[in-house]
Structure formats: structure tokens, C-alpha cells
Amino acid sequence: MSQFVQEFSKDAIVGEPEVVEDRLSVREVAAHPAWLRLQDAVTALQTLQVQDGSVPEPADHAAATEHVATIVPAIAELAPHFPHDAAFLEAVQHDFARWRDEGFGVPDFLDSLSAFQPQQHRVDGLGHLVVFPMVTQNGSSSRFVEAVLVEVIWPEFIAELEAGDYGNALFVALRFVDFTPGYDTNSAVLFPETVAMRELPTFTWGAIFQDREAARYRRVVRAAAEITKLDLPDDARAMLDDQELTEQVFVMWDIIHDRSHMRGDLPFDPFMIKQRMPFFLYSLEELRCDLTAFRESVRLERTLSALPDASLQDAQRAIRDHARLVQYAVVFDRIFRFAITGSRVRNYDGLGGQLLFAWMHQHDVLHWTDTQLTIDWEAVPDVIIALSDEINELYRRSIDRPKAAHWLAAYEMLTRTLTPHPASAWARGLPTETLAGPPKGYTDAVMDDEFPLSMFYEALNKKMAPVIASTAGITGTTSVAA
User: pLDDT digits over 278-288, tens only?
Assistant: First the structure.
């Protein structure tokens, strides 16, 4: 247990009894009149903002001022319930006042963002009140003011993992408690780079809502297993009946995935966030990190299972047991949800799901026979690790390749498993003028749907589309019945 956890626990017990007694949990704050006023004012303010977050119409400034006059005192009233965020909640009040005083131009909340440091407070069940003008990834592309109440997910075995071989000081695992409309969507992340600010600081944290990921997984996999007549293993089925267990599985998956970016034998910048490149390169990077989480979970399960159970500590048993479940989660989320979620326009997560399914099918651990899906779970780990090895070798060799040659090698690797569109210029072979030209020509030649859905997925998508659509806005407290 970290020094902070010890100190927080101590402070939560020792002190003025009336102060402890008056401090509400974040779930109790969700029913507090100040939160309800804050939520209503933020939602109303959004109707006055334009995409860059400003309120450009002078005629709307009086109403915006009234909303800020509600938001700021509400934050001040709620702040005592979040003493660990005192500096942030003080700074965000100043940022709102300055935005108002400067005429509601493009908002700048750098000062309050710099004061918000949730990675310093990874304590299971600890709450945060977060208020920023921001986009919500996979939600709203407008930089509106949003307010969200969240709860940290940090069980003991995750603390043990993070303190050992899987250190990730920036990673924060969260659960939704309540939110404004930007999060009544598919967004499952809270990233500092989405906040409106005058300049980019060094980012020190990134948060993922594992309760939304878990609830979405449970609903989608339950439906997909029924549609495909897949007989789930008992422990995989147990996940579908246990929201808290599935949340913890996703925390373990995500913490290993997140730390895998920029680790290993990689190109100089494998993710190439600020570069324009063929979307299938993003597919391979995200899949590489997921398969790293998979293979590490296999290693942890095998290593800990080889030891006498009596010799293991409780956290080690939890790591062993959750490691097996991470393997199910990676496979099922990738092949059942990722592959058919979103549009077919440069859908890099979709392509990664397609690749995993086809690889498993072509290596005889996944079968679609007599309209029933079956999976050979004993053979699955080594087959998926082999795909991870293929991607890792592609990356290792790319260190010595020019960028364009790496792109071509990546495409060739994909086409050994997936069939490209019949009209693909890449599949036919790019013309000499494109090959000799700048990278833009390569990227422009990629079709929006370079690797169309297989016949299996075309059929599955027709039945699964309503289920996947129904998961927008889902949380851990939402019913997961399909």
C-alpha cells in the first residue's frame, strides 16, 4: 500500500469528528442540491456555446453570466467534500470568473487543469468533482463545459501490479457517478489534452472509465454469445453477471495496455499522433498494446498457477485469477464489439478486431461450423501470442526501414490474413509516381474501408448493431440486460 493510501486512510479517521461526519461520499454528493444546480447550469450554458467553447453572441452574455453565477458558488459549496482536490476546485472557480470577465471568448482553463492531479490520489472509492470546458472523445467534438462526478477504482491487486513490473504513474481508473450530456455518449475517457487551454503543458495523467467499458462489454458479449451460440467457459460467464469483477478486469487490461505505448522495439514514434498516416498503422499500434496485455496476462497466470496456492498472497491470487479473465476480455471485446462498432471510414479499432478474429479462425482455434461459434481455449494463448510476435517483429524491423517501406511491410502483413477491397490501389500495387512521391500520396491512396467486413461480420453486424447502439451512455449502474 502506498504512503499516500496510508496517510489518506489515517486522515479519514483521525481529526475533528464533525468534519468527518459532514463529509459526503461522491455518491451522496450526486444527490446534493449544489450538484443538481451545477449540473443544470452547465447543461444550460452548453446551449450558448459554439464549437470552440466560446459564447460569441453578446446577447447571450447575460444568460452565460447567470449560469456562471450558479456554477462557481456550487463548486465552492461542494469543495469541502473533496479536500484532496482543494487547489483544483479553487483554481477552476478563478478560471470561470476570468472567462466571464474577459467576455466569454475561447475558454482557457490551463491554471485549473494544472492543479488537477488525480494520479496522486489513486485510492479505491475516492471521489472527484471535475468541471472543465472540453471535448469528450467519442462523444461531443465541441469544447463545451462539462461536469462529472467520478469514483476511483483501485483495488489492492491493481496497486500491487502497478508497484511491480507494470508501473504506470499516469494511469487513473474511474467509475462514473453522474455527468452532463457530453458523457451521455460512447466516451469512456477523461484526458487532459481535451480541455480548452492556451498552451499544452506536460500531461501527467490520463483516466479511463472502466465501469462504462465493463458494462458495455457485458451487454455486447452476452448478446453476441447468444446470437453465435457460443458456449462460454464458466469463469467467462461469471464476468457477465458481475459488474465489479468486470471493472477490475478492465483496469488490469488497460493499465498494461496504456504502459505498452512507447515500450519495446519500436519505430521512433509508433503511434505518430501528430502525423498523417494510413489508418491501418493505428490499428496495429492499438492491437499491439492489447496483445501485450493479453500475453502478459498469460505469463502472469502461468507463472502464478505454477506455485502452490498456499504460498501466494491474496493480491497474487487476485492477479492470477484476473489474468485469466483479461484474456477473455481482450478476445471478446475485440472480436464482438470493436470489429463492428462505428462507421467504416478509417475505423482502425474495427480493423484490429477483424484481424484478431481472422487470425484465430485461420489458425484453427476459432470455428464457425453449423452456424455455431466455438473456441479452443486451451490453444488460444499461444496462437494469439504468435500474432503479437508478428506485430512485434514488424516493429523491430521497421527501426531499419524508411517510413514508406514500413507502411508497405505493415500492409503486406495484414493482407496475409485479411482480404482488402477489390478496388484497392494498395492491393494492386501503388504506381511508381506514388511510390516515388511524398507520404501523403500513400495515405491518399488508402480507401476509407480498405478491409471490408467479411461475410461473417456482415451477418453478425445486422443482429448486433441495435445492441451496440444501446450501450451509448451506459454506466456500471445501468441495467446490462440486452
Answer: 999 999 999 99
